[in-house]
Amino acid sequence: MTAERAADREKHAVAFSSVLAAVVLTSAKLVIGLWTNSLGILSEAAHSGLDLLAAGMTLWAVSVSGRPPDRDHAYGHGKVENLSALFETVLLLVTCVWIIWEAAQRLFFREVHVEINAWSFAVVLFSIAIDWSRSRALKRAAVKYRSQALEADALHFTTDIWSSCVVFFGLVGVLASQRLDLPWLSRADSVAALGVAGIVIWICYKLGRKSIDDLLDAAPKEFHDQVAAAARVEGVAEVRQVRVRRSGPDVFADVIITVSHETPLEKAHETADRAETAVRAALPGADVVVHVEPCAQDSSPLTRARVLAARHGLGAHGLRLSEQDGRLSLELHVEVRPDLSLEEAHGQVTRFEAELRGQVPALAGVVTHLEPAGECRLGRPDRAGERRVRESLAGFSAAEKISLTPHELKVNSSGGELSLSLHCVLPPQTAIGEAHELTMRLEKHLRAAVPELGRVLIHAEPPEAP
Predict the structure, then answer these.
(1) Are strands 327-336 and 363-372 parallel, antiparallel or unpaired?
(2) β-strand partners of 422
(3) 296-305: long-range contacts at Cβ-Cβ below 8 A with a sequence spacing of 24 or more?
(4) In principle, which of 16, 244, 265, 436 could form an S-S bond with 223, CB 3.0–4.6 Å?
């Protein structure tokens, strides 16, 4: 037998035993109340009668809420327990209206003789014993399985204990008025009934508010704080959003966390797994979904542009930021899918530009150059082209009076166009800006000497350590 099935059976057994207890109590109180004409006992009988109806509703609710999620109820059937609790609240309020009305009639408008005997006290004491036993059993099951329906039923039986105590002292007052000739105590029974009504109204308020909050997905604030704190595991830059809702005994938590945009996909997934585990530890048994988003570790426009381009499914390179009259402008190359039409690619990049301007208000202008993404087929090695490139490199070194020490030089031919990649060694103290300018001049020199050159990649590096 699975744990879920065993839990459903235990909840069903506890709810069914409460129905039997409610039947016994309602019958006993009704018989004794009619016999003695005690409004306090009759009010208790009405209360227990509604408890019987509520217990039946609870039995049905725990049976339905235990069903697994299906196509029409993807989050399960837990809301049935919330509806059951709300229905029980309405029933109790109806009872209170009747009790208050009848008590007012007896206190101010008509005389009613209440007969006090041993059975009056016996049924009340019997009720307290049964209510105490059932409330403990229901409370244990409610806490164990986080069942709001069982919690509501336990609350009913707990309420019965206090209201029965009120009725007991009301009966004592009536008996004292008869034995000690104190007429003002003769109305203690009706006053006790009003006490019962007051207790029930207060319980109705608490139970009804909780049921409505759960039906409207108003999760307790402590749930939100617990989830947010638990999700801040190592690697999480920010807990951006937390949403928690309850459905009967089940709790659902949706969390959005951010990690560095440089975090590899596999590591980001591991971070999300750790966050899920931590949230489940804070809310045992909760259904947790963690969504990961990248975030920029700094606020520079270049970093924001790269991160945002990736979110739009674009590649970005060759980013250049310029300033004129205190206003920034950004130029960059944007790689789009090669199968897109010009209209589709332009629309995708336009949306990227608009969002980038929204995130970086200081940008006065964004200029993008569209180019297709994808791997470039280098074709076959071209020995003649390689000789021409080496001759051009020698001429450039002589003109610049610098030794480039070129290596890993590759020249390939494809479709009548040459592609070139090479590594060159520069002094280690060379500034990066100076190295970039030198490679740009070298590329320009090579293209002038070898007009067939298309793609050119020059990698500058310091000499290897000895």
Answers:
(1) parallel
(2) 458
(3) 296/261, 297/237, 297/260, 297/261, 297/262, 301/328, 301/330, 301/360, 301/362, 301/363, 302/330, 303/261, 304/356, 304/359, 304/360, 305/330, 305/332, 305/356, 305/360
(4) 244
Q: Which of 205, 115, 199 is nearest to 165 (CA)?
A: 199
Place of tokens 């332009």: 346
Which of 59-73, 141-155, 207-221, 317-331 has maximum average pLDDT? 317-331
Q: What is the pLDDT of residues 244-257, one digit of tens each?
A: 877 656 778 888 98
Q: What is the bridge-based pairing of β-strands 363-372 and 380-381? A: unpaired
pLDDT in the model for residue 284: 81
**Cα radius of gyration rounded to whole Å, the chain:** 40
pLDDT > 70: what percent of the chain? 69
CA dihedral 24→27→30→36, nearest 10 degrees, is: -80
Burial class of residue 2 in the structure, from the number of CB atoms within 10 Å of its CB (0-12 exposed, 13-18 middle, 19+ buried) = exposed
Is a pLDDT exceeding 60 seen at residue 35? yes
Model confidence pLDDT, tens digit, residues 433-453: 788 788 888 888 888 888 888
Contact indicator for 62, 146 with CB cutoff of 8 Å: no
Would the pTM of this model clear 0.85, i.e. be above it? no
For residue 144, CA distances in Å to 7, 26, 149, 249 come to 9, 28, 13, 10
Question: Can you list the domains of the chain with their CATH numbers?
Answer: 3-215 (1.20.1510.10), 221-295 (3.30.70.1350), 301-372 (3.30.70.1350), 380-461 (3.30.70.1350)
Report CA-CA distances (Å) from 271 to 72, 231, 237, 268, 295: 32, 10, 11, 5, 14
Sign of CA dihedral 266, 269, 271, 273: negative
- Cβ contact 100:197 at 8 Å: yes
Contact 170, 75 (CB under 8 A): no
